[in-house]
Amino acid sequence: MYKRYKAIVFTPSMDSEKTGIRYAVIDMESGEIVDDAQGYGYKSAQKAYAGWAYKHRDKSRDTEKAAKEVIISKWIKENRTFVRLLDTLAFEIIKGSHAPEDKVDASFVRKLLEENGYKDLPFSAHDLYKYWKNGTVFNRKRKEKFSEPGSNRKNA
After folding, report:
1. Residues facing 24 on adjacent strands
2. 76 lies in which domain range?
3. Tens of pLDDT along 90-121?
4. Are residues 77 and 116 in the same domain?
5. Cβ-contact 146, 155 below 8 angstroms
6. C-alpha closest to that of 82 among 128, 116, 110
7. Which tens digit of pLDDT belongs to each residue from 67-81?
């Protein structure tokens, strides 16, 4: 966290007996409150720091991440046999068919890529693993669509 900012105990504008202890982020030099969760305060100092960091992150990295997801998505569509193999092996590991110390992580994906001759990819095994673990963009959008309040369907 920036050394210039600090999370402090904050008294929100509403009834503090109902809300309990709350935190806000202040500028250490001026003493000014720079983030107080729209007057409500954060429930913990950690949440205050996380909120401040999110609001002041480097937004150019968001576009880089989206571009990388497009590249990975295209690669997955072109290499479905590899993804099926990854799915099958991950299922077997989770089911317990492999050794107890085996687990599905980025190093597992890296080894699997190397064993199947995939080298010099435009993304890392860790990026592929994160994308694969969270599901495709289509599945994520579908989950978000059907998890909205008032939707007729249950989570897909």
Report:
1. 8
2. 60-146
3. 899 888 877 777 888 999 999 999 999 999 99
4. yes
5. yes
6. 116
7. 999 999 999 999 999
